[in-house]
């Protein structure tokens, strides 16, 4: 028995606490205490306020996390070394010579290709530490790494990973997202901010905010007040313009870009509550005309509807700093248009098919967004099913139906974001929510475990000359069966999985394959999950605590 | 469209708010306001303090629930009637002539057959209301019904169900439980109390507390302090004797009996942390010797171990008021004993098989509990697989492997509690937690939806002369992948389903079959779920709010 335990102890990786794991990492296993007067010094002039704020949050988190190390005894054996261990008096934060000192919030919303998130971090055994980057955004990434080094036992804050050197850690992919649907059920600004805090911790850098859907329209738009008045569940369940700016700024200061999606022309039934003339098959039998209740799609063939939609999208988009904006475009129900008299009349009069009309609709809505300097984002059907010909080459396409569809989209030369339902949908496995079906499972059953998600390979069936088209990926929460009550527990720690896939890439710092290395990953995922809990996030247990304290003992 | 909505409105049942629905119910659809000076008067002398406390809690809840009615507009149309509606100045709470005035806490822990939970409640349109019962426990049940009548719009508290008459509502089955496993992951006393509050709301009357398991021993027993010292995840993650008394009394005052289970002789690996000599195959390969890690089972053939176990069980049982105590008895791994030298030596020396030894072990442990006046409770394998011959006739058997096993247990004359994994396990569907299996599903996949659970028939394959052996049932949370973080959301509102199955029985108050009536049940389940949320419980959304506001609109 004792031999068995000893073997396990030796096999414990040396970097349990860091998620996502840096691409380069050299770490020891010595104990270094945090000095009680520990300070973080910004070593350059005119640092932007949001960097100073981030530094201040890091310092606070290190002191308030109070995470006991995940070993039997929770650190009691570490304490033997406290008397002789060195103390770390401070961390110096620096920019490379001549680097710009733009705010984090500015760097975070730059176009994907223009962001520099790289950083280097060293913590020496004799008690000095330095974080260096080319940008304030890179420094922020380094701070989130630094925060994860620290444990607390009996009041002493310490790391067991000293000395530690990370040279030029930087993400394998520029887009590492999380999608939240705020339309099926409503989430408060506070719910979203809490989620952004945790996204920061694991270096997720895009909040894909699926704002509206068939069931509700929770955003107040000054130019179109009727949409929220008739379409929000209530005014208190809607986002005022100030709320949206608050979320966007809070995100940007944490290195997170907010990609807003207004899903069109499908998933728009609720527009009928204020504009019934603009919506086909409004509240008709959903089983015939929609993938879920309620039915209703924008009458896309009508130029008045296209102009209205372009106006709505522009009214929101112009208030947002992101270079990206999503117009959705998934799950169009063609029967709805076939049976809609006004639509058929227009199509007949103009001699177009419904998909030709969609092309015109898209030209109008995307044109308005391009005029605002936005890069448009769409779901995969726009490319694979509707043969939309007016999409600009720089359109970003989200692949959701199946991971197997990625290659076909890339083949057409579009950039993609991986959002595959068969790996990354966080809501799968909770059963059928259509109420009178006692035996139904969720359409994307089963539940996507962290293990299943972790095995996702972003480059499967992608040729080497197409690799540059893969921007990254995101895990997604559709909220038919979710709300603020289970937000934390259904999202965390699972949504951190894609952050490691797209930050660390295919190779661990020791040169071994990351993919498939579940036994190495799990202790680190436990660690960051327990840290989330210390921060008040209701992240779920992945295993009995017995297993969390004994790496590999609960492997098969 | 408008015609469609009107049809829906007429089809809305008249008693949306009550869960479980009373067995007799006559209700109107008039609005009655709660007077601002509303009072609850106890109309008999010497009421026990715990009834007064319950009355006080009910009065508070009615004022603090502030639940807006689940209709489009959330009650705005009700407010038109507020000016002319009558006000209810008070509720009178009475016992029947000559009834005993024992405390609720005493009635709640009586033997199952001796509890009287019946009550009658009337609320008249002219503003009077009366609750009558034979026992304080019955009054408590009536209070939980009364609490569910009230909504709030713009500061006015009101019901839409007046006049209302419930005559002699009483449960179809005496055992309506919920099981919580506090061993795989730890729950605080506060987590348990929060759960008890919600159990009270839906008339669940047994907390089956699965205290210990292979992974941890979170209970401090003064006579055996070493068990928690070595076996709790930490001392702060264990229950002191006072904690247990606190939970038991809190439960009893809310009409809930606490059935403690110490699972033996399997699921006891953690006993090896303090008593390695008492545990076979301790920490050996779990895939061979246990259904999940870690391996280890009590050396049941050893009389010293049987006596030790009887001592441990008695030490806990003697502190508990319940008439029931569970010794577990599930999932014995026979290979563990076959390969265990000390066990084989004893079996050879005494000329017994392992199951004959189990019989002796059970005689010892159950005997000790019977001496304390306890009725023993076991899992189904003790009857169906191990052919235990020493079980007393009054043993209560929990059927968990499959609902199909119920008939075979009843056939042997034992009383049963339905706890079928295929209907009532709340943890199913969250994937395999053994860490290095990327494609594994949970063993009891899929997720048990409320609809699936609701279709459970307690009398399937039970003959009429066996009906008296069916005590009721419970939904269960095994916590390998759960903890305080998702307790509310994985349990509620789903665990309320069995409370209606076993309170209301097979027939709705209007005479229609309850089973299969999902469309009628869902609006009421939404209602009680939204009420739970108002009480600070993180009960999950069952559907988009759009559906919750529009009964039947999201049926197929």
From TrEMBL, chains A, B:
Signal peptide: 1-17
Annotated InterPro entries: Beta_hexosaminidase_sua/sub, GH, Glyco_hydro_20_cat, Hex-like_dom2, HEX_eukaryotic_N
The protein, known as: Beta-hexosaminidase
One GO MF term: beta-N-acetylhexosaminidase activity
Similarity-based family: Belongs to the glycosyl hydrolase 20 family.
Domain Beta-hexosaminidase eukaryotic type N-terminal: 18-149
Keyword Transferase: no
SUPFAM superfamilies: (Trans)glycosidases (SSF51445), beta-N-acetylhexosaminidase-like domain (SSF55545)
The reaction(s) this protein catalyses: Hydrolysis of terminal non-reducing N-acetyl-D-hexosamine residues in N-acetyl-beta-D-hexosaminides
UniProt keyword terms in alphabetical order: Glycoprotein, Glycosidase, Hydrolase, Signal
GO cellular component, as recorded: membrane
Keyword Signal part of the UniProt annotation: yes
Spans traversing the lipid bilayer: none
Active-site residues (renumbered): 331 (proton donor)
CDD domains per record: GH20_HexA_HexB-like
EC number assigned by the record: 3.2.1.52
Classification of source organism: Eukaryota, Fungi, Dikarya, Basidiomycota, Agaricomycotina
GO BP, sorted A to Z: carbohydrate metabolic process; glycosaminoglycan metabolic process
Domain (Glycoside hydrolase family 20 catalytic): residue spans on this chain: 173-505
């Amino acid at each position: 028995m004792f031999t068995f335990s000893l073997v396990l102890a030796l096999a414990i990786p040396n970097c349990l606490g860091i998620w996502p794991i840096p691409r380069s990492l050299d770490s020891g296993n010595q104990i270094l205490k945090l000095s009680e007067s520990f300070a973080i010094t910004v070593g350059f002039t005119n640092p932007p306020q949001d960097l100073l704020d981030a530094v201040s949050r890091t310092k606070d988190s290190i002191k308030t996390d109070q995470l006991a190390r995940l070993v039997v005894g929770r650190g009691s054996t570490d304490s033997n070394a406290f008397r002789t261990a060195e103390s770390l008096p401070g961390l110096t934060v620096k920019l490379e010579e001549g680097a710009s000192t733009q705010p984090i919030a500015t760097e975070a919303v730059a176009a994907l290709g223009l962001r520099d998130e790289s950083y280097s971090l060293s913590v020496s055994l004799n008690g000095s530490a330095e974080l260096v980057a080319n940008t304030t955004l890179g420094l922020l990434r380094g701070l989130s790494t630094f925060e994860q080094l620290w444990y607390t036992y009996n009041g002493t804050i310490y790391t067991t990973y000293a000395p530690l050197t990370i040279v030029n850690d930087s993400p394998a992919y520029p887009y590492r997202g999380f999608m939240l649907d705020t339309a099926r059920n409503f989430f408060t600004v506070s719910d979203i901010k809490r989620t952004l805090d945790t996204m920061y911790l694991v270096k997720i850098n895009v909040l894909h905010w699926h704002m509206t859907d068939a069931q509700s329209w929770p955003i107040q738009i000054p130019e179109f007040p009727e949409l929220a008045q008739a379409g929000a569940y209530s005014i208190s369940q809607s986002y005022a313009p100030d709320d949206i700016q608050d979320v966007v700024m809070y995100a940007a200061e944490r290195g997170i870009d907010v990609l807003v999606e207004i899903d069109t022309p499908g998933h728009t039934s609720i527009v009928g509550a204020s504009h019934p003339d603009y919506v086909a098959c409004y509240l008709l039998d959903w089983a015939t005309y929609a993938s879920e209740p309620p039915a209703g799609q924008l009458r896309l063939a009508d130029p008045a509807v296209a102009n209205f939609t372009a106006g709505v999208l522009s009214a929101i988009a112009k208030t947002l700093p992101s270079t990206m904006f999503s117009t959705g475009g998934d799950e169009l129900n063609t029967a709805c248009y076939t049976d809609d008299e006004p639509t058929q009349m227009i199509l007949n009069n103009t001699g177009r098919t419904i998909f030709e009309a969609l092309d015109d609709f898209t030209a109008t809505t995307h044109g308005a967004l391009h005029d605002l300097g936005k890069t448009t984002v769409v779901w995969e059907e726009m490319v694979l099913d509707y043969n939309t010909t007016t999409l600009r080459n720089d359109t970003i396409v989200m692949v959701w139906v199946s991971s197997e569809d990625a290659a076909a989209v890339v083949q057409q030369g579009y950039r993609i974001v991986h959002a595959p339902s068969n790996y990354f949908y966080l809501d799968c496995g909770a059963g059928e929510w259509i109420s009178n079906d006692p035996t139904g499972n969720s359409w994307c059953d089963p539940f996507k475990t962290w293990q299943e998600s972790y095995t996702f390979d972003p480059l499967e069936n992608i040729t080497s000359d197409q690799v540059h088209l893969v921007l990254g990926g995101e895990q997604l929460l559709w909220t038919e069966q979710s709300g603020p009550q289970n937000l934390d527990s259904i999202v965390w720690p699972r949504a951190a999985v894609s952050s490691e896939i797209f930050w660390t890439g295919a190779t661990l710092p020791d040169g071994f394959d990351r993919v498939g290395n579940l036994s190495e990953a799990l202790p680190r995922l436990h660690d960051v999950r327990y840290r989330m809990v210390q921060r008040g996030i209701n992240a779920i247990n992945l295993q009995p605590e017995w297993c969390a304290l004994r790496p590999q003992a609960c492997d098969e």
